[in-house]
Amino acid sequence: MPLIYVDTLDDPRLDAFARLTEAQLRSKLEPERALFIAESQKVIERAFEGGMEPISLLMEEKWLPSMAPLIERMEKRTSEQTSGEGLPVFVAPHDELERLTGFELTRGALGAFRRPALPPVADVLRDARLVAVLEDITNHTNVGAIFRSAAALGVDAVLVSPACYDPLYRRA
């Protein structure tokens, strides 16, 4: 795994984590460049196992041992897709990560992933029996709670209106 140690978050390779706004990450004008940030090993692993394309990881050094098996799987798939370039894993000091997130990053890591293209609604609903519809919910905590509840209740599909808060926002 290519580890890249950084002393500060000023490195331009960390723009997705440190400088881009949520609107810039979504990149509606250039959807092929759109990203989302996953926070915590569990969320990063679920995104990866769900087929999302990882761009890079950012974490404190103490999380490397617990993340190593996942990083190895991510690295393997990324190398196959990018002709051996690999997955950049940025390692930053604790203070810099706390400054970035505004709180103690207790869940370990941040992952930048390519935002997937939205499938047509007809495809999403084709085999769905139980569907949740989120219309204009403007609180990221509520959106996250609804998605977690939908998963627990066996909901087959979730439709989100354009004015609804982004379910891929890292705090959702």
What order do the helices and strands come in, and which of them pair?
Layout: E1 3-5, H1 15-18, H2 22-26, E2 35-39, H3 41-49, E3 53-59, H4 64-81, E4 89-91, H5 94-101, E5 109-114, H6 121-125, E6 131-134, H7 140-152, E7 157-160
Parallel strand pairs: 1-4, 3-4, 6-7
Antiparallel strand pairs: 2-5, 3-5
Describe it:
- This protein has two domains: 112 residues, 60s Ribosomal Protein L30, Chain: A (2-Layer Sandwich); 40 residues.
- With 172 residues, the protein is an alpha/beta fold.
- The two termini are 29 Å apart.
- The longest helix is centred in the middle third of the chain and has 18 residues.
- The protein is globular, with a radius of gyration of 17 Å.
- The strands form two sheets. The chain has a five-stranded mixed sheet.
- Strand 6, helix 7 and strand 7 form a beta-alpha-beta unit.
Quick overview of this protein structure:
This protein has helices at residues 15-18, 22-26, 41-49, 64-81, 94-101, 121-125, 140-152; strands at 3-5, 35-39, 53-59, 89-91, 109-114, 131-134, 157-160. By secondary structure, the chain is α/β, with parallel strands linked by helices.
Write out key terms for the chains shown.
172 residues, 60s Ribosomal Protein L30, Chain: A, 2 domains, five-stranded mixed sheet, two-stranded parallel sheet, 7 helices, 7 strands
Strand content: 15-25%
Helix content: 25-40%
Q: Which H/E pattern describes the elements?
A: EHHEHEHEHEHEHE
The CATH homology group name of the largest domain: Ribosomal protein L30/S12
Give the class from helix and strand content and strand pairing: alpha/beta
Rg, rounded, reads 17 Å
Assign the CATH topology of the largest domain. 60s Ribosomal Protein L30, Chain: A
Number of DSSP E strands: 7
Give the termini separation: 29 Å
Outline the low-pLDDT stretches.
none
What is the CATH architecture term of the largest domain?
2-Layer Sandwich
Rounded mean pLDDT is: 85
